[in-house]
Amino acid sequence: MVNSYLAVATPPSFFTRYRSELRDALTRGISDGGLDLYDMLRYHMGWSDSQGRPTAGTEGKALRPNLCIFACEAVGGTWRKALPAAVALEFIHNFSLIHDDIQDEDEERHHRPTLWYVWGKPKALVAGNALRLMADMSLRRLRGEGLSLTKALEACELLSGAYLEMIEGQYLDLSYEGRLSISVDDYLAMIGKKTGALISCAMHVGALIGSENRDTIEAFRKSGLALGQAFQVWDDCLGIWGDEEVTGKPVGADIRKKKNSFPVVYTMAHAQGHDKEILTTIYSKTKLDDGDVKQVLAIMEQVDARTSSQRLAEQQCGAALEALSGVELVPRVMEELIDLGNFLITRKY
Amino acid sequence: MVNSYLAVATPPSFFTRYRSELRDALTRGISDGGLDLYDMLRYHMGWSDSQGRPTAGTEGKALRPNLCIFACEAVGGTWRKALPAAVALEFIHNFSLIHDDIQDEDEERHHRPTLWYVWGKPKALVAGNALRLMADMSLRRLRGEGLSLTKALEACELLSGAYLEMIEGQYLDLSYEGRLSISVDDYLAMIGKKTGALISCAMHVGALIGSENRDTIEAFRKSGLALGQAFQVWDDCLGIWGDEEVTGKPVGADIRKKKNSFPVVYTMAHAQGHDKEILTTIYSKTKLDDGDVKQVLAIMEQVDARTSSQRLAEQQCGAALEALSGVELVPRVMEELIDLGNFLITRKY
Q1: Do B300 and B230 fall into the same domain?
Q2: Domain of A340, in residue numbers
């Protein structure tokens, strides 16, 4: 399976089951206040171009909302009840992407110019904050879907908690920048917050909406956390060995940017002697050139960082399935989860 | 009264009535997750220096929380019940200041280096987002103060609504940048959202927590909106004619920055002939120099922009008092409100 990321991977089929209703709910979630601000958000979501004209095929994967709805259905709940939470998760995620792109000064995302690149940083910053609020407003609709007030409030608490973890993870990520040796454990704790918290919350909240069984709900939380880590480790692999045509990033892109990335952390921890010295010298530079990237890639091969990274992603996927092994699920769920896991660690984008 | 802004102005005495408990509540509102992130927030709030050592005399005016608590007390409510909402208002306001400073690349606020200037933009952006969440978390404490669930939820709705208006106002403000003629009405609508919404919300929510009378609650909303506009117009005057030693900004600072400011909007609308041409030429430049600022100041004097701006601030203060004229209030409230109004339009900072 180690080289299976080279295969073409498509999202699991259950994504299509929710697609049309999820898209409607997301669209309704962005209010139309008559300001260009809302056009900016529709552009960012991939629904229109920078002139406001509808586009097709430019949306994101919508992983988090799909996981939330899926978890609700998997435990025997009515999946439509989870739509407002699913929308909130997608908006929080996208709010963080908008701000991330500003922070990193990234000019492209999904082969399109980023929001700040088109409209400037001040407007993009404000638009991100607006999207964050749209998430809160979507959560208010949970009660309209027939959910009890207690559950609706609990869902809000979980989302807030995950959001705080995400922010703390982003902060840790920034704090680790420029540090030469972050332990593998520190790295995993950081991505558990930065990426894992929201993905875990998606599964957790979906199960909460669909089930009364606390053990089941907890199992989904755990499963989601493992999936989140698998997702991020794979994302890190794509940032280094991804197909340029699909990811839009050249090989080694995240090395050049000195990003905190699992393969880099792993290589730092396992390189020995002269290789270790070279790495330290390269990562002490302010800017890395092509030669540096090439050298780091060679040392990565030396310590087998690619195989180890992929193995970790696979292990975390396994842990995600394992977490749900004792839970009573509606038929076909396990097959669909396996599809999902395979997608997460074979996808090329 | 036109020149009274030259007098030393101190906050109204009722601010001191709440000071100690408000400060405690604000302090508790910033969680201590063991990350430097929270030290950044305490620095921004003016409670500590950049090394985490406690400081004194560096806090902001805390206008919004004071108004919220005051409104609750004024209608006969138990003011402590309003503390969680007061804290949320102060955090939302400060979140917006953190992001504003990043947007405007302002290096100083209240005579101290801004958050981004000390810690860099990426961390400051994240810290602002964390403070925004602390506001939500504080609102959850409303129920702990014995408030009914219905009222607590209504307070949350009002805060969200005000937050959205604030964001829309910020967006409009950015959209107006570089435009040569914004009407006075457009300007007032913009500041009504950007600044007025949160100040109005402070009065509105305070009254909601303290009273059952819908007319009273509505009167406070209206009064707050007028106060907010008075506050902003006066702020605009300080940005142009303020005392450099107190504001930390040189005379004409907001002219040089081409900020949307009432005196500028007023002058654009009232300058005639040659003056109008000069203004258009100057405001078409990318960067203004000392000579440009001096010329704009001279044209402002020509059209009496200073007197007109101050008169508008006074009128809005009058409207704020007028809005409450039919409302049954506990004794001394009107006197304290007059003190507040005088402070808002005579303060030097």
Answers
A1: yes
A2: 17-344
